[in-house]
Amino acid sequence: MSKMNLTRRGVLQTGAVAGAGLALPTYLSAASHAGFTNAPTGGTVTLGFNVPQSGPYADEGADELRAYELAVEHLNGEGDGGLLNTFSSKALKGNGILGKKVEYVTGDTQTKSDAARASARSMIEKDGAIMVTGGSSSGVAVAVQALCQEAGVIFMAGLTHSNDTTGKDKKANGFRHFFNSYMTGAALAPVLANNYGTDRKAYHLTADYNWGYTTEEAVRTSTEAMGWETVGTVLTPLTQTDFSSYITPVLQSDADVLVLNHYGGNMVNSLTNAVQFGLRDRIANGKNFEIVVPLYSRLMAKGAGANVKGIFGSTNWHWSLTDEGSKQFVQSFGTKYGFPPSQAAHTCYVQALLYADAVERAGSFNPCAVGEALKDFEFDGMGNGPTLYRGEDHQCFKDVLVVKGKENPTSEFDLLEIVEVTPVSQVTYDASIFGGDLGTCNPGA
Amino acid sequence: MLGLNKKDTYLLLLVAGLVIFAPFLLNPFPEGSAMAQFNAGYPDLMQRFVIFGVFAIGFNILFGLTGYLSFGHAAFLGVGSYAAMWMFKLFGMNVLPALGLSILTSGLFAVLIGYISLRRSGIYFSILTLAFAMMSYSLAYSVLATDMDGPDRQGLLQKGLTGGETGLQLTLEDPRIFGQQTAGEGNIPVPNIFGLEMRSAVEMNVGDWVFTFSVGYYFAALVMLLSFYLSIRIFRSPFGMMLRAIKSNQHRLNYTGLNAKPYMLAAFVVSGMYAGLAGGLMASMDPLAGPERMFWTASGEVVLMTILGGVGTLIGPVLGAGAIKYMENILSKINSDILHTWFAFLPDGLEDFVITLIYPFIGKGWHLTLGLIFMAVVIFLPGGLVEGGQRIARLFKRKKPSTKTPDGKTTPAE
User: Fold this and answer.
1) Is B187's CB within 8 Å of A440's CB?
2) Which of A315, A331, A357 is where one domain is finished?
3) Same structural domain for residues A208 and A308?
4) More confident residue, B407 or A122
5) CA distance A393 to A174
6) How confident is chain B (414 residues) per 10-residue block, as mean pLDDT?
7) The predicted structure's pLDDT at residue A29
8) What pLDDT does A31 receive?
9) Which residue, among A65, A103, A122, A206, would best test binding to B if mutated, counting the most B CBs under 10 Å from its CB?
């Protein structure tokens, strides 16, 4: 084999390398000295805003990012202070979080779990983010939440409506302010029964993925409890853009209500197709044919245009609410950007503030301390009325809005009107019904 | 050394050196400086470099040697990930059995797809593999993601075999019969190799520089080096020669009485197993497997990596994988605020103008930059980045213009 030539220089070089190698551990900083991942040092703290900047939910993502930038401004004491003025907890002083100036990094989830996790990991590993927030789909929320649990940072979910986020897939380090499919069903069913009667036959078109399933199930269960009958449920591929072939069977069935469990571009297309097929002028079983869209957003209503008129749905928050918090938020957002915020922007803004407030109250950035501060926290003045962050599943409980497409919109933003504010007691459920296990909080390194 | 000739040994040592010192090489800028944005030496990205390196090396065995362009290789990546995840869920968090099952499952899958697809060549082969990959994607996205253990049970299969849109994840209820079911106080255990966690890392502070050494990275790097070594051996073997013969002229090979099919299938399966290994590694570094890993864009990405780096070269695919992953993770992170801090020294009007010029190429526009670079490489460097490297090397080696003739001069042959 090879010959070994020992020379004086060779030995010295090897010795130097080996010595450096042995001395290495003394340089190794113990990243764990503070007891948790990315403990902020110095005068700043970094938050990670992980939102879809490309892909089907890019509009929502852009609005979320605007809201986060506004939140950072308000936390650092710039601008008009926004919801800090109306928030029931007064721990935040407008001097950053625990006196540290808030900085942020952004990432693109692309609405794909892999990309979202890669982006979140780079925020945590490279930029030292102490908390990750954002997202506009449940798949991404669940994936990033699991990552944050492993890495030992807090995840404040953005727009995610599936039951799973705080159900089957709940995690001790993850928190959600947005409402979910179950609440939609519970809030929507009584309104539908009042308006359309209790002897309806419903036909569901459902987006073929996780959120679609849980929404369909929630709406079906709660409408069936009101006396409705479900005559058909059909799954549609997420990538579908033309729903004509799915609408024709609806005409042949004896259904008199069509429920579109679709979101974003899917909903815009399916609703447009349904209206083009004359479903809204149709008389079935001696009744007017009706269409229902369980989850509404203003951006979707804008996409569907005049087709949304008179169609019922539910939403987490709407800018036309007249409580102090909502008015203040619409004003701050409108002053900075020139148009009213969407519900995605609202929930993200609120989540950022809730996190900052929890850190102030806990007196530490440690995820376990923050989690403890958020657990069973009751607050008000954020636009949704009195709200509870339930400790069992880290889900917020608050009133749910049932909305309807406005018949005579006065502007391009004034597309939805609030039909009913369903009280929180009606949408509260037992935390155990969805299974899953929070586990314990993980502070990381 | 190790059955390699001198040149290949140097290449292997070079790659090994690059991989071992990657935490230093990829972090050239001090923490907190304006250029720190371009540092790529954090565990997640370094792991991606080597994992996609494995993927591209495997793809190159098929595409580079036989010339058969598979447009559905991501299917094997996805299958490997799902296999590894199920191993974590059922048996325990050691990565070695998980990687074993990944390779095995993707190998079987490759036999099945390869047996059918290899009946055609050229564009038809590409379309067939693409069709299979998209079928796998749809299966994973919805068909295999329905509740398989009944609506009233919350068992292992409550989200089907693949978990659908939310991906296949670990839960606290997974049995993990050969390992600990929960770690510490009710947390999901982390993938490890005999107790050494993939996630653990040590940081070294030298002045303003911070270097991170992660267990997961070095494990993945070791696997990549082994794959690279195996690929060199395949390239230099009689089997590799046979594959090259298929590329240069399959008809002629047939006329000599050789049946090329078994060689093709073997290459396809080996290549699929490499992809499965990469998928298993991805699941080991970050325990979640989602269906978008099988989407056709993921298959297209590995084609880009191989072509960008240099088809049929040993090191090319690794370089291509690194280049694309670097752009995806670093360029896409630069937003307009960062640009404004860079160009703050310019007068306001000029600053806005410069930023307007650059903005389409960064952030979410990184695909545009990648496209331009790809076009430039294909047009000016058909041999990929490797050819670029060779050209530069030739510039510095002027002293030996021609070694063909003994005296260094060309003399007319008479």
Assistant:
1) yes
2) A315
3) yes
4) A122
5) 9
6) 86 94 90 81 92 96 94 95 95 93 97 94 94 93 79 74 83 83 78 88 85 93 96 95 93 92 96 97 92 90 94 92 89 78 83 85 83 92 91 81 50 50
7) 39
8) 43
9) A122
Partner-chain contact B45 A24, CB within 8 Å: no
User: Which residues of chain A neighbour B188 with C-beta distances below 8 Å?
Assistant: 149-150, 439
In a shared domain, residues A281 and A380? no
Tell me: do A99 and A161 sit in the same domain. Answer: yes
Contact A150 B190 (CB under 8 A): yes
Topology given in CATH for the domain delimited by B6-292: ABC transporter involved in vitamin B12 uptake, BtuC (1.10.3470)
For A27, the closest of B206, B333, B363 (CB atoms) is B206
For residue A201 the two structure tokens come to 């036959």
Q: Is A437 in contact with B186 (Cβ distance < 8 A)? A: yes
Are residues A148 and A94 part of one domain? yes
Domain ranges of chain B: 6-292
Secondary structure (DSSP) of A127-184: S--SEEEE-SSHHHHHHHHHHHHHHT-EEEE-S---GGGGTTT--TTEEE-S--HHHH
Q: Can you tell me the ipTM of this complex? A: 0.84
Structurally, chain A folds into a number of domains equal to 2
Taking the CA of residue A439 and the nearest CA in chain B, the distance in Å comes to 5
Q: Report the CATH number that the domain containing residue A323 is assigned in CATH.
A: 3.40.50.2300
Size of interface A-B (CB pairs under 8 A): 126
* A174 plus A323 within the same structural domain: yes
Alpha carbon of A264: minimum distance to chain B alpha carbons (Å): 16
User: Are residues A145 and A211 both part of a single domain?
Assistant: no
pLDDT of res. A25:
41
Q: B165: distance to nearest CA of chain A, Å? A: 6
* Cα torsion through B219, B224, B227, B229, rounded to 10: -100
| Domain encompassing residue A199 | 182-315
Tell me how far the alpha carbon of residue A245 is from its chain's centroid: 31
Mean pLDDT value across residues A88-101: 92
Which residue in A has a C-alpha nearest to residue B294's C-alpha? A114
CA distance A116 to chain B (A): 11
A298 and A198 within one domain: yes
- Indicate yes or no: CB of A118 within 8 angstroms of CB of B44: yes
Which residues from chain B sit within 8 angstroms of residue A209, using beta carbons? 141-142, 145, 164-165
Structural domain includes residue A430: no
Residue A192 belongs to a domain: yes
* Residue contact B288–A113, C-beta within 8 A: yes
Question: Chain B contacts of A235, Cβ < 8 Å?
Answer: 142
- In this predicted structure, the answer to whether residue A27 has a pLDDT above a threshold of 50 is no
Q: What is the average pLDDT across A276-295? A: 90
Distance from CA of B187 to the nearest CA of A (A): 6
B141 and A138 within 8 Å at the Cβ level: the answer is no
Which pLDDT score, from 0 to 100, does residue B275 have? 97
**DSSP conformation class of A239:** T
Q: How far apart are CA A270 and CA A150, in angstroms?
A: 39
Return d(Cα B358, Cα B339) in angstroms, integer: 9
A203 pLDDT higher than 50: yes
- Residue B363's contacts (CB-CB under 8 Å, 6 or more residues apart) are A53, A108, B331, B332, B333, B334, B335, B336
Residue B352: per-residue pLDDT: 85
Residue of A nearest to B163 (CA): A210
Contact in structure between A66 and B337 (CB atoms under 8 Å) = no
**Judgement on whether residues A143 and A228 belong to the same structural domain of the protein:** no
For residue B383, the SS3 value is coil
Tokens for A427?
């949408």
Strand pairing of A257-261 and A201-207?
parallel
Assess whether pLDDT exceeds 50 at residue A30: no
How close A60 gets to chain B, by Cα (Å)?
15
**A297, part of any domain:** yes
User: What is the rounded average pLDDT for all residues in chain A?
Assistant: 88
Question: With a threshold of 0.90, does the pTM exceed it?
Answer: no
What is the per-residue pLDDT for A1? 41
